[in-house]
Amino acid sequence: LPNQVHRKTVKKGFTFTLMVAGESGLGKSTLINxxxxxxxxxxxxxxxxxxxxxxxxxxxxxxxxxxxxxxxLRLTIVDTxxxxxxxxxxxxxxxxxxxIDQQFEQYFRDESGLNRRNIQDNRVHCCxxxxxxxxxx
Length: 137
Prior knowledge:
Layout: H1 2-12, E1 14-22, H2 28-35, H3 49-54, E2 60-68, E3 71-79, H4 93-112, E4 126-130
Parallel strand pairs: 1-3, 1-4
Antiparallel strand pairs: 2-3
């Protein structure tokens, strides 16, 4: 039985959702592109100073399929442009927390339902939080 589960899982592939959060310019995109040897952000436009001031925290998902040695990985990168870029960041984490909670609640509802055959797992499996190297005060 364990071999059957292993074969089925390898054939179907794996899903992995990685969230990256942190201020602009800390190297989040560079790290993701280097880790997965791809350019997930080729269509990205860097906002100017005025746009950054008015910007709120968004949730942007990028998905890519990677296959290596016959093993398929459906990778989803959840980016949070605008996170930590405001002058007052006391509530900037709220959008990120709400998104993570929503994904877990949706997965729980799907798992509790009758038709569990084609459940899509959008839960955040890992969150990389980039801390600015510059101190305040």
